[in-house]
Amino acid sequence: MSTPDPLLDYPLGERRPELVTTPAGTPLAEVTLDGLRSGRISPGELRATPQTLLHQAAVARAAGREQLAENFERAAELASLPDDEVLAVYTALRPRRATPVELEVIAQHLADVGAPRCSMFVREAAVVMAERGQLRPAG
Amino acid sequence: MSEEPRSERFRVRAQAPLRRETLIRPDPSLGLVAMNGPGDPAPSLVIEHGVVTELDGKPRERFDTLDRFIAAHGIDLEIAPEAMALSEEALARLLVDVDVPRAELVRLARGLTPAKLATVVGLLDPVEMMFALKRLRARRAPGNQAHVTNLKENPALLAADAAEAALRGFAECETTVGVSRYAPLNAMALLVGSQTGRSGVMTQCAVEERLNLRLAIQGLVTYAETLSVYGTDKAFEDGDDTPWSKAFLASAYASRGVKVRFTSGTGSEALMGHSEGCSMLALEARCLSLVRACGSQGVQNGAISCVALTMSLPGGTRAILAENLIAAWLDLEVASGNDAIASHSPTRRTAKLMGQFLPGTDFVTSGYSVMPRHDNTFGGGNYDADDLDEWMTLQRDWQVDAGIEPAGEEAVLAVRERAARAIQAVFDELGFPPVSDEEVEAATLCHSSHDVPDRDRAEDVLAADRVLAENITAADVALALDRRGFGEVAERVVGMQRQRVSSDYLQTSAVIDAAGAVHSAVNDPNDYRGPGTGYRLEGDRWALLQALPHELDPAGVGVVDATDGPGLLRDLGTSARGGAGDEVVVAVGPAFGGALRETIGGIPHEEVLRQVCAGIEEEGVRYRVVRIGRTSDVAFIAHDGAQLAGSGVAIGLQSKGTAVIHRADLQPLDNLELFGMAPLLRPDSYRQIGRNAARYANGGRASPVPLVLDNFARAKLIVRTALLHRRETEAIEPGAPAVDVTLA
After folding, report:
1. CATH superfamily entry for domain A81-139
2. d(Cα B280, Cα B24) in Å, to the nearest integer?
3. Which one of B30, B33, B660, B667 is most buried, counting C-beta atoms within 10 A?
4. Model-wide pTM > 0.80
């Protein structure tokens, strides 16, 4: 679907609008005031899909921004997760919020719901936070 | 403390606004050293089997949390051996070598450690840093961000200020709250106001992360720069985060369509008491390596709220420029501070600003206060509404684009009122506490929230709670606007939602233009490669930025119109040398009473002439008025007059009011008395000039001529001087003989 050089697709909204839809599948061109008025689109679908975020990750990587690309790849995984779940992971990664076991449960859950990069990220944090005394002691 | 100065001059200096600030000697043990500190780590990097085992002098077993994160995510191990092998001097030279492309500098930076970055930049002087920053800015064109707040959290005023900010060209508007429950309403007012002023302006509401994410999910904000990081573990922990939590938060924001910019800056670690003996810049370099490692597209840095602490130290201003430079070198979008008040001294504030203003950064300020300072709930503003003309004049002076566009009062008031009306309509449609017509009018015309009626804040807070409880989104706001006849604003609000869906603005340094096109470092990168290349303020944009509303058209200055009537003087005939020894000639310039009718000080020529002549007569001396048509130079006008005067004494009067008393035996450029600063002359000055000339003729003693004291007269009037003198010069008739004249 995308061209070999992601940079040529950017900005997606301008150059490849046909690649962009809302999570409900509405094409970008139909995201209009008229669409809202008529109820063809719902307010809740006005956000990026995981595919769009992955496309932005490819653009960032092609532009030489590896870490930004990895950020967008994590974002693509989080796009489908509920807000509270996302915020719970954030909280657990703050100092002395989670026990080692709790972090592992979160990491496993992320792996189970199709967020392997985020899962790995949490496991990596768990190792360093344990060594640095930034986890909450169990019990 | 020093004793009270004995010298009045020392005492006056000690009372200047500048001296309210504390300057302090460096103390590296407290982190109170701006850059190049004696305790700063020496750059080093050891990679074994694809793992960083030594970073900036520390073996892996002594890595702190930041080191661990930077080692894992912040250094490109492929590039590092090549980049770290270059000496600091060699890298510093590359930064100022115009023939080395930005892409190459950025590539090398991916392999550099924090200490290496700080050490290299520490070799540059301020002008070298500015040049490097100009080259390394990520986006082609510089931009600016506005702060929009008010003490009363009045929604009509927030909307009006956001609209004006948008009209003036700010690419982003940031608000915050005094009371956090207000956040949804402030975010909504900012969204409606900004889109009323110009489509495509991105907005944020700086509040706690959970609330901020909610606002983003509801489409009420599009960017966030609240993610603060610090350069030591202890400071980081005091900030209640880990590098992993911050990086995860950045991904969370991106997943909800929010452009993220981290925040860091020199001075924060010293302020928090956790500097570990390092210089401010050394720690900021760690922050910036971390910011990139976290995958943020950019950073707000430049000491930010700690600016006055960094600037208390020797080289503080330079260190702040250095941190902006490191961020740009790391390929990050830079919103370069200049938001918090840097100094009591306007001189010092502006001198500091030039480090970012002249090179141009992605956002020259990370918040220009578009309202008066006291309404800025971010803690004041380094530049505010009352300084807009200053900022735009500096742009015009330097031919530099620092992101603020001139706008006339009519255009400004139109968008302010429309924005206030738009949020009034939205509040009404959503059943929120009404915004009154008085509030709309005050929001349009006021100086600050002092002039705006009070609202029932308890009721507003309940409305704000409803925004969250009922999940009122930007789409609902657009529909409300649409129902109430604000279709264009509604379309623009939906346009921002379309931007969220495509998420192009998540890329580095992205801004959105009025046509909805995204400009980022991806599709509009800085392409500066030396003179004549890169972003230059020229063409239509330069025409726009230079045309300040109060600029004068030279063609209109000093023009005599029909209502001025016929000329003041009537010709009597060609002048001859007078025979009487008690005759003083009053010689006037070619435009006197004709093409020009008053002096630069606004005194009518008729009044000038009457005063001079009366002064001569008071001394019992006769006068004759002569027009010198051949020259506009006051010395020659007077000298010609002196040759005609029976006494040999003449007064020369230029039309702009400059006067000189001359005598026939003196060289033309010599004189008896010169009154070269016409703006300082009052009617009684001219009378005394007349008296003095008469006394030179009859052997009396001249008295001092009274003058207005105004040291700024030249700065104020030099343009009019040039234009008025030009008119006099245009009135010259080459070779024309002197003519006796009288009042018509």
Report:
1. Propanediol/glycerol dehydratase, small subunit (1.10.1510.20)
2. 14
3. B33
4. yes
